[in-house]
Amino acid sequence: MCPHLGVVAGVSPREMVELFSELAGNPDCRVVVFSGAGKMFTAGIDLMDMASDVLQPVGEDTARISWNLRKKIAEYQETFSVIERCPKPVVVAVHGACIGGGVDLITACDIRLCTQDAWFQVKEVDVGLAADVGTLQRLPKVIGSRSLVNELALTARKMFADEAASSGLVSRVFADKEAMMAGAMELAGEIAGRSPVAVQGTKVNLLYSRDHSVAEGLDYMASWNMSMLQTEDVMKSAQAALEKKSPKTVVFSKL
């Protein structure tokens, strides 16, 4: 296992904030690969957990009940937002079903891969609620077709691997999980071999530009690179290019 790859498996949502906060600040981690360990990626909402954790909020009156419920929803939102904010690129590998919260999770990741048997479902309308922890905000920016997003979110129909690829939800489809994980690790290795200053700066600026105008994105980029261009990584990469060496042969300092 490459020491610069952080691999996440079997992590509950409540552990996500602590985990990704640690990964964000860990200089030995350059890329995160996220995958499911069971027969499927995610099974969706546990109705018993939801009934006890969300549908029975505490409070003496409507205002206090609502305030506490809002805090609980915000906590769940943060379990996925922390993935998006992590400066290390996150590659997610999906096999089998990816239901409900799984869609919230993968839309917060940077690169999405799946197996041929994978399928995706925005399931929340089937359990009487609007998806409230990220799908409705991120999926339109991932797919780009408002009509398709509306259809998926309003009908809870399944989207299978080929449609996920053609719509842009995933960038690659693999025959099976073994092939997918090999592809995910190879991709992560390619990213980890590049300058961490360049990689993390690219992710930060891609996210900023997604939510701002072109002019604002360019201004932010100029402010970012006025300091980041002073990295030794630029000279190291230029020297490798002059010597016709692969960027992967350059040894970059940790970040």
TrEMBL record:
CDD domains: crotonase-like (cd06558)
GO biological process: fatty acid beta-oxidation
Keywords: Acetylation, Fatty acid metabolism, Isomerase, Lipid metabolism, Peroxisome
Signal peptide: none
Listed pathway(s): Lipid metabolism; fatty acid beta-oxidation
Record has Acetylation as a keyword: yes
Name of the molecule in the record: Delta(3,5)-Delta(2,4)-dienoyl-CoA isomerase, mitochondrial
Organism name: Takifugu flavidus (sansaifugu)
